Amino acid sequence: MSTEIIEIAKSRYQAGKLAFENGKYREAVENLEKASALLARNTRLAGEVEIWLVTAYEAAERTEDAIALCQQLRRHPHQETKKQARQLIHILQAPKLKRPKEWMTEIPDLGAISDNDSKRLVAVKPKKSIPRQKSAEPEYVDLSTVNTRDNSFIWVALIAVGLTISYLVWLSF
Predict the structure, then answer these.
(1) How big is the chain by its Cα radius of gyration, in Å?
(2) Are 35 and 16 in contact (CB under 8 A)?
(3) C-alpha–C-alpha distance, residues 73 and 87, integer Å
(4) Of 17, 49, 71, 156, which one's alpha carbon is 20 to 30 angstroms from that of 106?
(5) CATH classification of 3-93, choosing from 3.10.129.10, 3.30.200.210, 3.90.950.10, 1.25.40.10?
(6) pLDDT tens digits, the chain, 173 residues: what are they?
(7) Where are the domains of the chain?
């Protein structure tokens, strides 16, 4: 394989990673697929590109393609690629958990707003908060109602600390 083709594949690979990290998953898939097509399947670089391609497929909501590619990568000659493919296949095939609606935050689509509308201020409804109790005076507790039976451990600990300190002082002389 010529070095020119490898350099083109590396530049596509870097472009795919950059697109993925910027949230442009379709563009990342395109670049990574092109880089993968240029490389020999059994090389370390091809395995690395295809692992990134698996994550790009999943991010682009093409889970079936991601799982199929992971199945192939489990038989890759490079050991690290095999290991990553085995770990990813478990993640991809794990059941999807459903989240309650109150855990989710809706993000409005701002692409449909015209320039004139975007200049308006949007009022945000604050979430209900728990009212805080602000007391200027300290709260006093009746000591006759406090359970002091469990405090015997404190006396034992204080005696042990006192004996240890006196023993250390005695050793220093």
Answers:
(1) 32
(2) yes
(3) 11
(4) 17
(5) 1.25.40.10
(6) 688 988 999 999 999 999 999 999 999 999 999 999 998 888 999 999 999 999 999 999 899 999 999 999 999 999 999 999 999 999 999 888 888 888 888 877 777 776 655 555 555 555 565 666 566 677 787 877 877 666 778 888 999 999 999 999 999 87
(7) 3-93
